[in-house]
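::Encoded backbone::
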Amino acid sequence: MGIYLSSPKTEKFSEDGENDRLRFGLSSMQGWRASMEDAHAALTDLDDTTSFFGVYDGHGGKVVAKFCAKFLHQQVLKNEAYSAGDIGTSVQKAFFRMDEMMRGQRGWRELAVLGDRINKFTGMLEGLIWSPRNGESNGPTDDWPFEEGPHSDFSGPTSGTTACVAILRNNQLVVANAGDSRCVISRKGQAYNLSRDHKPDLEAEKERILKAGGFIHAGRVNGSLNLARAIGDMEFKQNKFLPAEKQIVTANPDINTVELCDDDDFIVLACDGIWDCMSSQQLVDYIHEQLSTESKLSVVCERVLDRCLAPSTASGEGCDNMTMILVQFKKPIKSNASANGQCSQSKLPETESKGEDVVELKT
């Protein structure tokens, strides 16, 4: 059986929500793929002042994406750095924590609870659907104690996922990314990438891969994985002499912090199934066009998915799973940048980043 269906599955999982600071809409669609491996999390109220949004694009199976959708935001909330106001450190620790939690018996059991089973011949985890909803799994977790048992030596799943999350607290936006899902902000209608697509041929990624004993063939890590950073993929993280951030593939996210102001319209988080079909600016332009006549944000997301869906599998583009979250800011945004909340234009780049560099919008 091939990786594509004979006809696409166009049913969509969509959701809307809001609080006094923002409103969001999201939609996901399986499309031409034989299974749905994307997951997401959307929590308008991670706590009283903070919202959390995440897109997770699984590969080799859906289980790691579902695991992150269930647990990653919990670990952000739980980390001591979060209580101290350091969101960047707390989210970085949470990315690494996902890999730690998926090892051993407890990790094996939790992956099974999410509806997956292990192929006894290949060790691969084969997933079933688990769909997170706003507010679900938004509570404290236990300390994930060590347990002895038949799976205590389970080194973790061979499948993996990208992770691109946006955390908003008051007028501060923190974006963390590992992989090639992407977060883009629209500022006065101009698209700026707030994350970098972690491909193996990027110089910094290539250097780490080679130093860790890996190689790149046909644009893929060790000839198989077309991402340089991901959560899961434990087969690329087996060097006991290297820390987690220096493994062949690492979960270490890029962190970007932006101070929002009234010039900021919305952010988009989406998997590469969207970005393969539209550039960041094209998507921002299309969203602005849709928002002139459509107020329901999930409907805007659904239209993007339909626009990106290929009519056939001939080219490959538009054939992937697709997930998109659109977060619109309510005005005025309370900003410390200036008395009237206007952005400092001197700190902005002149053009859209094409996924090669992270754009730091600091005001």
Notes: The radius of gyration is 20 Å. The longest helix spans residues 63-78. DSSP finds eight helices and 17 strands in the chain. Helices lie at 63-78, 80-83, 87-101, 104-113, 203-211, 272-275, 280-291, 297-308.
